[in-house]
Recover the amino acids of this structure.
């Protein structure tokens, strides 16, 4: 009789584990280019993308059964994909917050966030070029292209050039055109 109770408890525990979705350990193993049903995109990791919606649930794990840890409310904010698991992406924002979102909430468009102090947007990619505007930390804008250490951006309609080191959303050695 005791073995029947243990078996019933094991079945209940197994069913609970299966209904909760994949474990974080299973998600950690999902970063490769698998050929099975849980295949990844094969795109480089990490990589930058943007939030597609003005309300994106960030979960503690890669399934809707995991609790929502917080909600991003800045549409088109750049985020970095650090891991993939099936249709879920582990992302990190410019302040270091991390969690899982469904791939449908992400877009391949590229934006940046101004970092550090108030920064100048320059007319040309040169520190001697006149400033067209000054941007506060946290301001977001579109990334157009990068040449060397400079990136062409559009921040709230102000178009010009900023140093890569002044924005978050593009890698130091990334070629972006």
């Amino acid at each position: 009789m005791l073995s029947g109770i243990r078996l019933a408890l094991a079945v209940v525990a197994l069913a609970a584990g299966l209904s909760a979705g994949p474990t974080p350990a299973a998600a950690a193993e999902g970063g490769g280019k698998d050929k099975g049903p849980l295949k990844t995109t094969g795109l480089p990791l990490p990589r930058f993308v943007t939030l597609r919606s003005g309300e994106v649930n960030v979960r503690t794990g890669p399934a809707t059964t995991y609790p929502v840890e917080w909600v991003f409310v800045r549409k088109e904010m750049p985020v970095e994909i650090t891991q993939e698991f099936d249709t879920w992406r582990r992302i990190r924002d410019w302040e270091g917050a991390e969690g899982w979102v469904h791939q449908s909430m992400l877009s391949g468009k590229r934006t940046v966030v101004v970092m550090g102090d108030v920064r100048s947007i320059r007319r040309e990619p040169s520190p001697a070029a006149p400033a067209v505007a000054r941007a506060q930390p946290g301001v977001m804008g579109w990334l157009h292209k990068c040449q060397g250490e400079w990136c062409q951006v559009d921040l709230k309609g102000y178009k010009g050039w900023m140093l890569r080191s002044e924005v978050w959303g593009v890698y130091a050695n990334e070629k972006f055109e």
